[in-house]
Amino acid sequence: MEDTSIQLFDSKKIRTQWDAEQEKWYFSIVDIVSVLTESVDATAYWRKLKQRLKAEGNETVTNCHALKMPAADGKMRMTDVADQEQMFRLIQSIPSPKAEPIKRWIAQVASERIDEMQDPELAIERGYK
Description:
Elements: E1 2-9, E2 12-19, E3 24-28, H1 29-37, H2 42-55, H3 59-63, E4 65-70, E5 76-83, H4 84-91, H5 99-118, H6 120-128
Antiparallel strand pairs: 1-2, 2-3, 3-5, 4-5
């Protein structure tokens, strides 16, 4: 794993991590849940949702794993993450008017990185914006 970064969606911070080996982004599930639900305690919301999805036999939750990402206190802590495909499936489980906009945002983030890998000048140009 490499390239841990903060991405912005509607001025909300979403922790991400790029896996160069697998060539895919991982997104902090709690951060996405926070945007979708505007919950005061997105961690508790995710914990309950995860229990419910596991009870339903949802494989997406089973396949999610944790990575060390910077926490609010600045320390690196284990955080549940999902790749683009898993995140799309989880978003479907959360009723929110922001579901479609955040799916488009996730797709854009993933697409930009792949475009930059094929044409490194794009990354340089984005750095100047």
